[in-house]
Amino acid sequence: MSWIAADWGTSRLRLWHLSAADELLDARSSDEGMGGLAPAEFEPTLRRLAAGWEATTVLTCGMAGAKQGWAEAPYRPLPCPPLGPGLTAAPAEGWTVRLIPGLSQAKPADVMRGEETAIAGWLAANPGWDGVICLPGSHSKWAEVSAGEVVSFRTFLTGELFAAIAGHTVLRHSVGGDEIDAAAFDEALSEALSRPEQLAARLFSIRAEGLLSGLPAAAARGRLSGLLIGAELAAARPWWLGREVALIGAGPLTALYARALAAQAVPTRSAESDPLTLAGLVTAKRLMEGRS
Amino acid sequence: MSWIAADWGTSRLRLWHLSAADELLDARSSDEGMGGLAPAEFEPTLRRLAAGWEATTVLTCGMAGAKQGWAEAPYRPLPCPPLGPGLTAAPAEGWTVRLIPGLSQAKPADVMRGEETAIAGWLAANPGWDGVICLPGSHSKWAEVSAGEVVSFRTFLTGELFAAIAGHTVLRHSVGGDEIDAAAFDEALSEALSRPEQLAARLFSIRAEGLLSGLPAAAARGRLSGLLIGAELAAARPWWLGREVALIGAGPLTALYARALAAQAVPTRSAESDPLTLAGLVTAKRLMEGRS
């Protein structure tokens, strides 16, 4: 029987249709993320996006398992392998839907939902790998993996901070557009790494330089991005200093992290997150069936 | 002739009606701040709020003089006294309207509009005073005053950061209500002062503790406030270490700054900002007329 693998995040839903032998048959995505859905809307949303696929078994990771999601999947406490036994059933008439639990860390308090599946995909592609994984995003994650287990991780609000500051403070007048000036990014990154405590003052300077000397929007945006990623790297220093970092992500944001880490002489290996998440979902399916 | 003193900020407008001898006759305020007004709307807004007052001379400080305000008043570069000659005229049929210029600092780039008038009011009430002034707010300011001149200042985005994070990130689920738990504030303040670079990670911990251990909203709000004010104090350390600080502001926010500085054994003298701004406007009027 074919089946459906799903990555149901806060803002996006990705579906893959796979054969019984886990070969990719089709893929679809939509912006119907968990953030915009009431619990009763998950089932019809899934049926609509999967229309025409002959599959009634669904395995999903991500925010569909959050408290405000389709059904609440518990967190598995560290240390533990990224995937394990124990899936949560979600209600869907005539279908079998299973949610992958997230991971939790007691101290410092932290949680993840979805990234554990990408980490499992990374380990499936790199058996026996030990080291540090960084997953840039709205909530960037740094995770330490050892002997097949996630032993610690830390989440940074960096991506959401960028959006909140660029959209909802006086800096919105300064950072318009999508372009990032690389030199401004590099300079701000270096400033933030050397004096991370100056963040709130440096943020206002972006506005002041716009008023006093006409700082261009791409430079202002580069500065904001450099300050925030620099602050994250300053806090995450023990994770990357003298290490190789596996960067799991996609697009311009992950490229900025690679650039920032390269500037600290940190070697990185990059991988796209979607294929790794799919590989993790396939691993979870095999675990579920005792095939692993 | 009686006249009108105005403090036209981003979100609020305050008007005072004063006699020719600068005695207070009446006061009014509204939420028609500069942020919600087009340039042509300033004059009718003023006439409506001042209806019935027999005065046609208006002296205003604040964001009415911003580029997007009533008329652009230039910045005066540091070092300089908080008020000086050179006012900008704004168009108003049959009225005399004058805007007080803001102050600018070249390096680090910084600007203020309105706080210079409160600082002038503080100096009018404390002649010959030298020292550090902190003005908490959406854009907190720290200013060094010496021999009647503002010699340097620094703006922190702290208040706007609080609003943007509390309203537009995942923390909005955690920090509802208005209450601030004082113990949570104190603990977060101390954490932020000792390791300010951990800000972005500590912010996400507020959410994680809400999910994992049901952190109450007042504690989450106290934590967020303590982290952000602590980050500001960490960056502003050279301004307050071993000094007395004049705190100019109002309400619960200024009380939090007083509490935070007291925890660092920094003596503070507090003053309400509205009366000081009015005193500064009166000083500016006398300067304008050569009466000072």
TrEMBL record, chains A, B:
A Pfam family reported for this protein in Swiss-Prot or TrEMBL: DGOK
Keywords: Kinase, Transferase
KW Kinase (keyword) present: yes
Gene Ontology molecular function, alphabetical: 2-dehydro-3-deoxygalactonokinase activity
A single BP term in Gene Ontology: D-galactonate catabolic process
Keyword check for Secreted: no
Protein name in UniProt: 2-dehydro-3-deoxygalactonokinase
Organism field: Pseudoroseicyclus tamaricis
Taxonomic path: Bacteria, Pseudomonadati, Pseudomonadota, Alphaproteobacteria, Rhodobacterales
